[in-house]
Amino acid sequence: MKTINKPGTFSRARAKVRGKFLLVSALCALAAPAQAKVVEELAARVNNEAVTISDYQRAKEALTEQYAAAMPDFFKQKDAAAQLEKAALDKLVDEALLRQKAESLKIKVYERELETGVAEIRKRFSRSPDGGQLSTEKAEEAFRGELKKEGVTLEEFRERIRRQLMVQKLVQETIKTRAKMPGDAETKAYFDNIILVLKGEEASIKGLDAEAMQDLLAVAGKFKEITAERLHLRHILVKLKEGATPEEKKAAQEKALALRKNLDGSLDFDEAAVKNSEDQESAQRGGDLGYVVKGMLPPEVDTEAFKLQVGENSQPVESKFGWHILRLEEKRAAQKLRYEAVKEDLEQVLAQNSFAAELGAYIKELHKDAKIQIFIGEKEK
Description:
Elements: E1 2-4, H1 12-15, H2 23-27, E2 42-46, E3 49-52, H3 53-70, H4 80-104, H5 111-123, H6 136-150, H7 154-175, H8 184-198, H9 210-227, E4 230-239, H10 246-263, H11 269-276, H12 280-283, E5 288-293, H13 299-305, E6 317-319, E7 322-332, H14 339-368, E8 372-374, H15 376-380
Helix pairs in contact: 3-4, 4-7, 5-7, 8-9, 8-14
């Protein structure tokens, strides 16, 4: 067992996803009632508060989903799993410290605020897994079913929401007053660094530590997507399963060729996609893939897509997923990134960075007087 009474490491890039401390994510966790009903193995203890193994597992799963959505390239790192494990435990420890601080300050959560918080969670059960709207009765049944599955009473769930809203108020009232809005010179300097990244000249950027550079590269990547040449595509997919036999491959190709031939006749592309595409998600939208930029599609498909003229259908293109027939609906030329157009967005990014830095410093102070015991490392040795 390791006992630590020193400041913990608060990594903005790991304990939060893209510049925001994910307090709201704790509101999504219906499990982990305020008082555990059964004796469970501990991952850590923060002062007198237990952090269970199941708490840890849920936090790790939630962070994995968030990273997959926001930073998919993160998983290419060799130590990605270890980073996620540390981030999950750090997150739980930090949240416990903030929660304990909020309780010690007796921060008030009013009934209407609690009801709003509970309603926000309930709202997430208003749709079925396939996206359909549920009736009020079915949505309530799904919500209650999840509570039962996790062994949490409605009263315990409400108490958890109340405690998390206390933390949210603590952060807003304490940190927002410390965080600062960037000046024009700071915002312009940040923009100039983004331009250097877009030109491939990031090596010439000075004065940023590794984490700040990581943040800058992520922001620049988003602007690159926004300003790059983009295509509005539809497609019809004839799937090819992994390990398909030569006969199955030939049958899939022949089916794609037949569909393509029919498109030269009276067959409407949208209708053909709805009836024949085996990409179920896009098929419901007439094969619509939305806008894509170079590199988003499989290489073979990407190359063919950027050769098409507006209104043109491609010949079948093979990828690891099967055979694709593409249709180009619209092409937008690359745009120049202009400072005035993105100034407000950059100010928001810098303000979030300032907020995250102040929050990190605040949590670091909370660590100083805390007794934090980590058990999970010992179990894995």
